[in-house]
Model the fold of this input.
Amino acid sequence: MATLTLSNVKKSFGKTDVIHGISIDVADGEFIVIVGPSGCGKSTLLRMVAGLETVTSGEVQIDGHRVNDLEPMDRDIAMVFQNYALYPHMSVFDNMAYGLKIAKTPRAEIEERVAQAARLLQLETYLQRKPRELSGGQRQRVAMGRAIVRKPAVFLFDEPLSNLDAKLRVQMRLEIKALQRELGVTALYVTHDQVEAMTMADRMVVMNGGMADQIGAPLEVYANPATEFVAGFIGSPPTNFLSAEIIGQSGDARIGVRPEHTRLSDSGNLKARTVYSEALGAETLVHLKCADGTQVTVRQDAASTIPQEGTEVGLDWDRANEMRFDSSGRRC
Amino acid sequence: MEKRVKFKGIWLPILLVLPQILITAIFFFYPAGQAIWQSLFIPDPFGLSMQWVGLGNFEFLLSDRYYRASFVTTAVFSILVTVVSMGVALYLAVLADRLVRGSGTYRTLLIWPYAVAPAVAGVLWLFMFNTRVGVVTWYLGLLGYDWNHVLNEGEAMGLVVIASAWGRISYNFLFFLAGLQAIPRSVIEAAAIDGAHFWTRFRTIVFPLLSPTTFFLLVVNIIYSFFETFGVIHTITSGGPQQATTILVYKVYADGFVGQDLGSSAAQSVILLAIVSILTVIQFKYIERRVHY
Done:
């Protein structure tokens, strides 16, 4: 258990700057999710905390101690990899015991700690198996077990669920979160999936092009996105963006309105033609196209009447739900 | 799903495997059969008559002090060649694997010796270590060491081992490097996070994961050192001094074609054949069990 502090951390590969300075204070026991599209530098950031990449400038502190120049093994962290990175020639038991054996932990204690982790992860009956004899979800659990037994100060997760199928992903999402709460350990979790970020995070860091666009609690980020990118990335279906001009305002600002805040109405200050609608059961997503080609999605209650495809309808929303972004994408 | 082709008749499949069977029959079964047959006779030096001796050739060989010495020589030689060529290759491969820039050049340069024929390699090393004009001999002389592999048995063995292993290093290096690069990076990183330093990682993770490659190379290198080193030995030492480098294959040649004792030579071929068969069976049966995957 520990705090984690990043102060203006930067990373360059040769002349290419990948991370442009990120600062964040992670409290003890906090679950932080770093979310962003491919290539935004989120995995690199995690690997810098792990010590698998050097820090170009800035400082990484674990529990108040600078760890920039420490080897991964001296940082008191554990990491779960996307492809699990299990040792294929070792049994599940040996996989979990590896770190403890290297630390020369007494045999009895190793057995006790592995047994404890195995119980927690429901792996007790698989301890003698090799990783290749396990399913994807079980391998994932072994990777978690390997991290748990070492009782690290910080847990690092690098897209741990992306190799699982959709159903298992939902289940493991809950398990990981529950486990983290139970152990009360500080966690840094990288994902490109905004649903994982929304559901698991105490606070999330939305990264875009090597910068942290916004850091905050999931609902706060959702309700109050700091940039146009965050508004578009968090939330599904994504926020509708309209130029100020087409709703009769001056300036080059862009207006963002979430699909659930957009209404179909006869009056409305904007006209659009319905293109396509997706009935999802509890709700229906209506996709429309404005005169200038802007696409808009409206989330409708399934009970409401859905206009025929090709009809022209009005769009309306409360001004309170409007989000304005300047030309650089910042909130204004 | 396994893809299987079903033939209607018997003739087409026979025709398809015929070339392989013919090659094996003409170049392996026929000469091997001849060797077994000949090993039961003593022919006169001109090949005009053959006298049946049964297992006499084998009896004579197994009680022959020189032949038994040749067994020991072969064992020493092939173990040394295999250990040296695989050890050096593994070391170089580990270094090349850690290299980020220039690994292509390094790799290409290391592969070159493989293109050198064993006999040519033998001549190259012979020149370097020539007792009168060799460069290395001269430098060793400056250091006060009197190199003379023509008289010194240990030096002769050392030289043929180096010359035989040298070309092999390239080959082994290629396989080791490919094996190393097939190990997922994240597994190594996980071990690093788990607290394993470089040598611990190598011993507990890398080497076990490399074992299929190592096993394959072990078999190939032992067979190489048994048979394909003839050229090196012939050019450098011709089996001397005092038969110190006469490995079994060289003795087959020396007794048969130089000593004109064709019956004994044939018997030696048969013994060699048996040894290699047994070695291969042992290797696959016992060593493979400890190989992962």
